[in-house]
Amino acid sequence: MEEKKILFIDDDKAQRGIINDIIKKLGYTVETVGSSEEAIRVLAKNKYPLIITDLKMPGIDGMELCKRIREIGSESVIYALSGHVAEFDPELFEEIGFDGHLCKPVNIKVLKLAIEGAFEQLCSSMREAE
Question: What is the pLDDT tens value at each position of the chain, 130 positions in all?
């Protein structure tokens, strides 16, 4: 299986630091970026099995970022993250291409379960493809 790498996108520097520390303590490799534009540049060079993106960001928001990632055919698991998840229609998340969503502030246990679930989903997909 691929390395358990995660790309985390959030325009809030403090949030990136917190999530970076949590994910590392959970035993995963994480790269954090501050914008969708930066994420697109990073994704052009590297693959990440799991991508977690904030929804509300200046420039390209998380919804548009997810659409663009799916358009290039990425099989990454993508989670939306927002303190305003209730403002969005859960069915829209699925239509756009998100595999799930998380609420801010992030509960460490929920984040851990979401990450484990994402990598489990990826392993299952790989086994089915064989």
Answer: 457 999 999 999 999 999 999 999 999 999 999 999 999 999 999 999 999 999 999 999 999 999 999 998 888 999 999 887 677 777 888 999 999 999 888 899 999 999 999 999 888 777 776 6
- The alpha carbon of 95 is separated from its chain's Cα centroid by a whole number of angstroms, namely 16
DSSP string of 16-33, one letter each residue: HHHHHHHHHHTT-EEEEE
Q: If we measure between CA atoms, which residue out of 53, 110, 46, 113 comes closest to residue 78?
A: 53
Residues 6+ apart with CB under 8 A from 55: 61, 62, 63, 80, 81, 82, 84, 85, 88
> What is the distance between the alpha carbons of residues 124 and 130, in angstroms, rounded to a whole number?
10
Give CATH superfamily name and number for 5-129.
Response regulator (3.40.50.2300)
